[in-house]
């Protein structure tokens, strides 16, 4: 199966007067597993349907393997799509569902039989060939939908939230199987999801969409560690955001003031180049860090000594907590601003109580400065 690229160049789409996709520019490498991540209404499924040919773009170009397919009908694009509800024929057996696309393409009987047999073996459904969709579990139905799409050997595989109907444990299993299948076939795959965990555990790279605009593209690690704006920071994982103002800007660091009078010195690498160029003394910014990058300790006066050096240390009060199994998330009120702290659960360890007075400790190396 040939690996092909997919490229969107200045793609826009609207429904009447409503702009749904706005100047989308994406390049997906041959054989890449690429995720489109965003909330409901962000335009990610619309973009997927545009690629498959179910929608028509307003402006721009859509290229597959370097060829513009913008005006090519859906049935001629050689792109396979797995829908959220699987869209299986309930009156057909697994075998007939998988063979359907080959029958429509008038593939010779012997070749059809061999390809269906091969793909059923690939997805582990050989023993279920004569069952009907209603006799299968959700995970098995998803495998049938994948097999039916893969058997026609499409250039590109599109997946529209295919795991959303499964329970948590099965979703974990199926996303691993999905990735293993994609790696085995080497097919360029675009996966739509609103679940950041699904995107981060499967995608080579991903694009975050919001209100029809691509906010940021990168590897899961890139987007988690260096979000470019507040939306990406909040959508790709949880993020603490403390209001502050810029006090001083120097060549290699800047000093910010937080509510309550505490100052914090961070390297300029904690700021994106575009924001750094626009910053001025007195500007409002957000001091950001992930909950797992913050730690708790007992409240002591001496704990404040490290502030402004290598750590931001603030007194606070535990106002709520959530036990999440592997960790406990504490919500700590510090100078009228709430901070989330994820602390690994240890057997026999006494957790902090609600209303306990604590100190939060945040190494300045973990801080990112974002525009408010």
List the helices and strands and how they pair.
Elements: E1 6-15, E2 18-28, E3 33-37, H1 44-52, E4 59-64, E5 67-68, E6 79-82, H2 94-104, H3 109-122, H4 138-150, E7 156-160, H5 168-185, E8 188-193, H6 196-202, E9 205-210, E10 213-218, H7 220-225, H8 230-235, E11 240-249, E12 253-258, E13 263-267, H9 273-278, E14 284-289, E15 295-298, E16 311-323, E17 327-334, E18 337-344, E19 357-363, E20 368-371
Parallel strand pairs: 3-8, 3-9, 6-7, 7-8
Antiparallel strand pairs: 1-2, 1-4, 4-5, 9-10, 11-12, 11-14, 12-13, 14-20, 15-19, 16-17, 16-19, 17-18
Overview of the molecule:
The chain is an alpha+beta fold and 372 residues long. It has two domains: 6-229, P-loop containing nucleotide triphosphate hydrolases (Rossmann fold, 3-Layer(aba) Sandwich); 238-371, Nucleic acid-binding proteins (OB fold (Dihydrolipoamide Acetyltransferase, E2P), Beta Barrel), CATH 2.40.50. It contains nine helices and 20 strands. The protein has helices spanning 44-52, 94-104, 109-122, 138-150, 168-185, 196-202, 220-225, 230-235, 273-278, and strands at residues 6-15, 18-28, 33-37, 59-64, 67-68, 79-82, 156-160, 188-193, 205-210, 213-218, 240-249, 253-258, 263-267, 284-289, 295-298, 311-323, 327-334, 337-344, 357-363, 368-371. The protein has a six-stranded mixed sheet, with helices on both faces. A five-stranded antiparallel sheet has the order 13-12-11-14-20, with no helix packed on it. Strands 15-19-16-17-18 form a five-stranded antiparallel sheet, with no helix packed on it. Residues 304-308 have low confidence and may be disordered.
């Amino acid at each position: 199966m040939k690996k092909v690229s997919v490229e969107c160049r200045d793609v826009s789409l609207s429904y009447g007067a409503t702009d749904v996709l706005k100047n989308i520019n994406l390049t997906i490498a041959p054989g890449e597993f690429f995720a489109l991540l965003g909330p409901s209404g962000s335009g990610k499924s619309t973009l997927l349907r545009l690629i498959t040919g179910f929608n028509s773009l307003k402006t721009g170009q859509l290229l597959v393997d370097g060829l513009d397919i913008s005006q090519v009908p859906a049935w001629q694009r050689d792109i396979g799509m797995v829908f959220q509800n699987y869209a299986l024929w309930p009156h057909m057996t697994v075998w007939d569902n998988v063979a359907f696309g080959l029958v429509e393409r008038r593939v010779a009987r012997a070749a059809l039989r061999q390809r269906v047999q091969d793909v059923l073996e690939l997805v582990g459904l050989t023993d279920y060939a004569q069952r009907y969709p209603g006799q299968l579990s959700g995970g098995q139905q998803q495998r049938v939908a994948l097999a039916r799409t893969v058997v026609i050997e499409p250039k590109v595989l599109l997946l529209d939230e295919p795991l959303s109907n499964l329970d948590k444990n099965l979703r974990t299993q199926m996303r691993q199987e999905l990735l293993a299948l994609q790696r085995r076939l080497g097919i360029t795959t675009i996966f739509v999801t609103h679940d950041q965990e699904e995107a981060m555990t499967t995608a080579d790279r991903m694009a975050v969409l919001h209100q029809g605009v691509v906010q940021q593209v990168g590897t899961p690690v890139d987007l988690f560690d260096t979000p470019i704006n507040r939306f990406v920071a909040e959508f790709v994982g949880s993020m603490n955001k403390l209001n502050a103002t810029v006090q001083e800007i120097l060549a290699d660091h800047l000093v910010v003031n937080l509510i309550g009078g505490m100052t914090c010195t961070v390297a300029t690498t904690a700021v994106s180049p575009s924001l750094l160029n626009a910053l001025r003394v007195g500007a409002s910014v957000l001091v950001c860090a992930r909950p797992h990058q913050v730690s708790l300790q007992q409240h002591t006066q001496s704990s404040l000594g490290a502030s402004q050096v290598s750590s931001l240390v603030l007194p606070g009060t535990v106002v709520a907590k959530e036990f999440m199994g592997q960790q406990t998330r504490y919500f700590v009120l510090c100078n009228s601003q709430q901070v989330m702290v994820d602390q690994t659960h240890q057997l026999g360890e006494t957790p902090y109580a609600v209303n306990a007075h604590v100190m939060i400790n945040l190494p300045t190396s973990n801080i990112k400065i974002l525009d408010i």
